[in-house]
Structures are given as C-alpha cells and as structure tokens.
Amino acid sequence: MICGIGVDLVLVSRINGAMNRFGERFASRIYTPEERRQSGGKAIFLAGRFAVKEALLKALGTGMAGGVRWNEIETLARESGAPEVTCSGMVEHLLGLRGIKRVWASLSHEKDHVVAVVVLEGPGP
C-alpha cells in the first residue's frame, strides 16, 4: 500500500554553486561517503541525490524536523542504474514508526534540472 509520495525538482547549478562555495563541508553534511564516491563529484549526480532526499522527507511529511540529517538518506545506483534508497538514524526510525517497508525512487535528468519522485510502501489495510 502507498503510504506517502514526494517529488522534488533541483537546479544542478544550485548544487554546483554550493559545492564551489562550501566544498567538503557541504558535501559531508549532505551526502554519505558512498554517494560522493559514486557521483565522482559531478554536480548532476549530486543534485539527483539531493532531490531524492527532499522528496523522501516530503513523502514522510516531516521535513528536517526532529533531528533528521541529510546524510541519513543514501541513494546509490544499482548495477542496472536504478536508484536504491537506504536510510539510517532518525529517518530510519521515522519510517519504522509509520510501518514503511520499502522506499521507491525514480530520477530524471534534463540539462540543468533533476527531478525525483519517492513512493513509500507500507502494510496494506
């Protein structure tokens, strides 16, 4: 059963600007080490990861409240290229409280924009 849906649109230039201004301080606060490694530092891939984080928090309905940290949401590319989302810390705890069993994500890139859609799957009625 669908328990939440979130969508987010990110300008790649916004992420590129933050990386240029704040460098590692920004990257380590927002992304997991594996996300940074997999992205190769490319802003378009980092923007996609950021969009998934925002979309998931919208689907969950919490935003950044209650001690949630950006790097508790990790999006990695499967061998097929499809995004796979895992969560830790407070985000994992909140998902558990709501009975969420799976996080589905889809990403699309177009020039200077990235869009992410996240669907939260939980127990049926």
What's the gist of this structure?
This protein is an alpha+beta fold and 125 residues long.
Number of strands: 5
Helix content: 40-55%
CATH superfamily: 4'-phosphopantetheinyl transferase domain
Which descriptor suits the 3D outline? Answer: globular
Instruction: Assign the CATH topology.
Output: Ribosomal Protein L22, Chain A
Strand order of the largest sheet: 1-5-4
Cα(first) to Cα(last) distance is 8 Å
> Could you tell me the mean pLDDT?
94
Approximately how much beta-strand content do the residues carry?
25-35%
In CATH's first tier, which class applies? Alpha Beta
Total count of helical runs of at least 4 residues: 4
Please tell me the CATH architecture by its name.
Alpha-Beta Complex
Task: Detail the poorly predicted runs.
Answer: none
Task: Give the topology, please.
Layout (H helix, E strand, L loop, with lengths): L1 E10 H19 L2 H7 L3 H18 L12 E5 L5 E5 L1 H9 L4 E9 L2 E9 L4
Antiparallel strand pairs: 1-5, 2-3, 4-5
Task: Report on the architecture of this protein.
By secondary structure, the chain is α+β, with helices and mostly antiparallel strands. It has one domain: Alpha-Beta Complex (Ribosomal Protein L22, Chain A), CATH 3.90.470. It is about 40% helix and about 30% strand. It has four helices and five strands, in the order βαααββαββ. The strands form two sheets. Strands 1-5-4 form a three-stranded antiparallel β-sheet. A hairpin with a 2-residue loop joins β4 and β5. The longest helix has 19 residues. The mean pLDDT is about 95.
